[in-house]
Task: inverse folding
């Protein structure tokens, strides 16, 4: 089964299950973002979104470096759209069932409005 893909800056990045070295940063950042509203996001929260997306993209594309990532034309909409895939790939939240419906908090962990 192929890894899910996120699209950032017009490029597709496979996102394998994250390893502990990513999860130790990604999981706490996800917790900090709980309940974030897109029209009231702080710089620190935006930085968390960027760090989460970078680590997820780099997991499946190890040659991707932070400087190149930060220069990519990544939209906020792309960051938000990538989030459910990244949450799923942390491995600590319930995965989607075969019918495609979320089981548990993966899609509801963070309420981006």
Result:
């Amino acid at each position: 089964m192929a890894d899910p893909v996120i699209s950032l800056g017009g490029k597709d990045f496979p996102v394998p299950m994250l390893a502990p070295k990513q999860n130790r940063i990604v999981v706490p950042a996800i917790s900090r973002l709980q309940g974030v509203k897109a029209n009231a996001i702080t710089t620190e929260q935006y930085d968390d979104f960027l760090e989460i997306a970078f680590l997820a993209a780099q997991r499946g594309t190890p040659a991707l470096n932070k400087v190149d990532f930060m220069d990519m034309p990544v939209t906020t909409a792309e960051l938000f759209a990538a989030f459910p895939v990244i949450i799923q790939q942390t491995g600590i939240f319930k995965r989607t069932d075969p019918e495609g419906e979320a089981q548990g908090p993966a899609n509801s962990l963070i309420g981006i409005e």
